Amino acid sequence: MSANTHGWLRAIDLGSVAYQDAYAEQLGWLGRVQNARETPDADLGTAGVVLLLEHDPPVITVSRRPDARSHLVATDEMLKAHGVTVEETDRGGDITYHGPGQLVAYPIVDLNSAGLNLHGYMRLLEGVVIDVCAEFGIVSNRDACATGVWVGGEESREADGGPCEPSGNAKICAMGVRVKRWVTMHGLALNVRTNLDHFGLIVPCGLAGRTVTSMGQQLGGGCPSMDDVKRSLAGKLASALESHASRV
């Protein structure tokens, strides 16, 4: 485990971690960030910490949304053949996949410190990932119909007075969070060199007919290293939180 402080955020690199171990780590830092409101903690940045990791063994996480479990299409035999486990999660969202080659970032952030509500925080996370992708030569965007970051086409928008019409973009980053006493948990999963075949075990995020992509698929041999993507995301997230706080 290594750590680096970016002023507003302490970035902690956990390496490869099983899902339940990472969840326990989140809970520990959650308590520290909450307690820091009364007792300063020298191990925290101004807003908190971000845990950076890859989940290994690979795992499918299923939220408590009523229909989320129905979006697991793999049989037990298929899961065993691929070495993929299944875990229930208390984050928002639906169902997703985590595994080696995917950068998972769990910001444990005091939204009060940054002057953010939940909607603003989600849009900030999307903006950070869009900036990370741009640094490495990938044009990405938001989708008005679904949280996350997408590649390949124009940004979709809600039609005036009509239903949201999804674009044909492929998702490169999934997001799902939980907030306790205005401190965040969970976060985002950016596909760097992820095994995209494993997304065939689920209906990703419950969005039928939508595809997924990765930085590796977009850039080929020019794909950055995991360490480079971690440094970029941690720095941009810290800067975005500080910048927003300075405007409120």
Could you explain the architecture of this structure?
The chain is α+β, with helices and mostly antiparallel strands. The protein has one domain (57-98, 110-247): Bira Bifunctional Protein, Domain 2 (BirA Bifunctional Protein, domain 2). The protein has helices at residues 19-35, 76-82, 111-114, 118-135, 215-219, 226-247; strands spanning 2-5, 9-17, 48-55, 59-62, 85-88, 95-98, 102-109, 140-143, 146-151, 170-180, 183-191, 211-212. Strands 1, 2, 3, 7, 8, 9, 10, 11 and 12 form a nine-stranded mixed β-sheet that branches. Strand 1 and strand 2 (9-17) form a beta hairpin. The longest helix has 22 residues, at 226-247. The chain is globular, with a radius of gyration of 17 Å.
Secondary structure layout plus pairing:
Layout: E1 2-5, E2 9-17, H1 19-35, E3 48-55, E4 59-62, H2 76-82, E5 85-88, E6 95-98, E7 102-109, H3 111-114, H4 118-135, E8 140-143, E9 146-151, E10 170-180, E11 183-191, E12 211-212, H5 215-219, H6 226-247
Parallel strand pairs: 2-3, 4-5, 10-12
Antiparallel strand pairs: 1-2, 3-7, 4-6, 7-11, 8-9, 9-10, 10-11
